[in-house]
Amino acid sequence: MGPDFRGAGEVGVVRLGRLLWRCRRGMKELDVLLERFARQALPQAPPEDWDSFESLLALPDPVLAGYLLAGDTPREARTAAVVIQVRQGMNFYPPLQSTRSGSAR
After folding, report:
1. Dist. CA 79–CA 55, nearest whole Å
2. Residue 70 belongs to domain spanning
3. What's the rounded Cα separation, in Å, for the pair 7 and 19?
4. Within a domain: residue 58?
5. I need a labelling partner for 68 at 20 to 30 A (CA). Which of 15, 58, 83, 105 fits?
6. Along the 105 residues of the chain, how does pLDDT read in single tens digits?
7. Are 6 and 44 spatial neighbours (Cβ–Cβ below 8 Å)?
8. Domain tally for the chain?
9. What does the alpha-carbon distance between residue 57 and residue 4 come to, in Å, rounded to a whole number?
10. Measured between alpha carbons, how far is 79 from 53 in angstroms, rounded to an integer?
11. How many CA atoms lie within 13 A of 35 on its CB side?
12. Which is it for the CA torsion 35, 30, 33, 95, positive or negative?
């Protein structure tokens, strides 16, 4: 089943497609983070979050990498909020469980 666009209709589908295309960057790490966030969070997000994400995508790769991979903090509150959301999306998957038993030998 596809994402729920909350009544956004065809315009929402087209906009998401354009944003997903813009998620393709020069760094694979950024591609993965940004696309994962766009696919999982945006369909349920309010329009202002879509706008904030679109503004984030306008930044150059080195700045984005600093924010998303190196932990730099944006000065602008709107940008900082979306960076926090994308960073939280990095934790979508639970950590791998160890296959070793807890007893020491």
Report:
1. 8
2. 27-89
3. 18
4. yes
5. 15
6. 444 544 456 668 888 999 999 999 889 999 999 999 999 988 888 889 999 999 999 999 999 999 999 999 999 999 999 999 999 877 644 444 444 444 444
7. yes
8. 1
9. 22
10. 8
11. 13
12. positive
Distance CA 53, CA 19 (A): 9
Asked whether residue 69 is assigned to any structural domain, the reply reads: yes
Half-sphere exposure of 52 (CA within 13 A, CB side): 20
Q: Where are the alpha helices (DSSP H) in 1-105?
A: 9-22, 28-41, 47-57, 61-68, 77-89
18 within some domain: no
CA dist., res. 89 & res. 33, Å (int):
8
Residue 65 lies in a domain: yes
